[in-house]
Amino acid sequence: MKLAVIPGDGIGPEVVEQALRVLEKLHPDVETTEFDFGARRYHSTGELLTDDDVAALREHDAILLGAIGDPSVPSGVLERGFLLKLRFLLDHHVNLRPSVLYDGVASPLAGEQDIDFVVVREGTEGPYTGNGGAIRVGTPHEVATEVSVNTRYGIERVVRDAFARAQQRSKKLTLVHKTNVLTFAGSMWARTVDEVATEFPEVSVDYCHVDAAMIYLVTDPSRFDVIVTDNLFGDIVTDLAAAVSGGIGLAASGNIDATGTNPSMFEPVHGSAPDIAGRRLADPTAAILSAALLLRHLGDDAGAARIEAAVAADVAARGDQRGSTTEVGDRILESL
Ligand SMILES: NC(=O)C1=CN([C@@H]2O[C@H](COP(=O)(O)OP(=O)(O)OC[C@H]3O[C@@H](n4cnc5c(N)ncnc54)[C@H](O)[C@@H]3O)[C@@H](O)[C@H]2O)C=CC1
Ligand SMILES: CC(C)CC(=O)C(=O)O
Ligand SMILES: [Mg+2]
């Protein structure tokens, strides 16, 4: 396995270190190439992501990323100029974000909870494409636009992927959008879901406006199995999904090119957490579970299941005594 590793900024290197230990334990022959993308490289060279970088990344079977973003760089420069650019260039159209409440993990929600759903977030379109601009900047008459780009091609492929996952799971798919207000894009999403649904007659289809979906995520998360949604809604929904499922430190994700043309990239849902960076306080579990998604994507289901079992055992045992980043890694490695 040829693995590109992007530790990135903030807590990224701390959590990636632990995920790599786990991957190397299961695949001692893994060949890793480390890339120094992020704030430090940007400050020293001015570079974010060059054509040569992308070509080099394409030489790998998969990419493991920590996080990108740093307070020393204006907001958006690294996020847009590196992270989104990379997701778009590698056509990571399926942004896969499972939410599972593990046994023994406390949810902030009251009562017994049964949370096991996956958000299939579109990863290459929506309002994240940089289609917009600003005029009269800095004046009282400034105007800014950020246009959401939705293509039939882009929606259909992610919707079909979500249906296929629902077919393999509990056969229930929920479209989350805001069709009552964002009528142009919303209509295309809803019609596409209706059309693709005819290929999956066993999957029942539900729809929630995104605002109501946030209510149900807190009051009745068990109603969800597979959620399909656009890039912006999916970003927001999955931070709340993480919070109700035991915290952002446990939430894994995959940025997948489902055609297999480009290497897919696996990363925690969280960001670089500058508020705790450098203090060994970060929970590396999300990065470790992202490594499990990586292995499953590459066909090693048994390895992925071993990591998930080790994590399940650890989160059940740790209670609120998680310990340092390294201690969590040590325990999960030991359990493996
Ligand atoms: N995929 C990526 O690389 C992402 C990058 N970002 C970037 O990260 C930077 C910080 O963004 P924020 O909005 O603060 O989001 P964040 O996800 O980095 O942090 C939000 C909160 O969660 C906590 N947290 C995050 N990961 C944790 C972990 N593993 N263990 C324990 N606590 C954890 C942080 O301490 C903070 O209180 C920004 O530059 C942002 O653009 C944000 C989200 C995703
Ligand atoms: C920083 C953004 C580009 C990414 C993000 O928040 C996410 O993918 O969850
Ligand atoms: Mg996010």
From TrEMBL:
Residue positions binding substrate: 87, 97, 121, 211
Annotated cofactor note: Binds 1 Mg(2+) or Mn(2+) ion per subunit.
UniProt binding sites for Mg(2+): 211, 235, 239
Isopropylmalate dehydrogenase-like domain span: 2-332
Binding of NAD(+), residues: 271-283
Keyword terms, alphabetized: Amino-acid biosynthesis, Branched-chain amino acid biosynthesis, Cytoplasm, Leucine biosynthesis, Magnesium, Manganese, Metal-binding, NAD, Oxidoreductase
Catalytic function, reaction form: (2R,3S)-3-isopropylmalate + NAD(+) = 4-methyl-2-oxopentanoate + CO2 + NADH
Pathway: Amino-acid biosynthesis; L-leucine biosynthesis; L-leucine from 3-methyl-2-oxobutanoate: step 3/4
Quaternary state and interactors: Homodimer.
Protein name: 3-isopropylmalate dehydrogenase
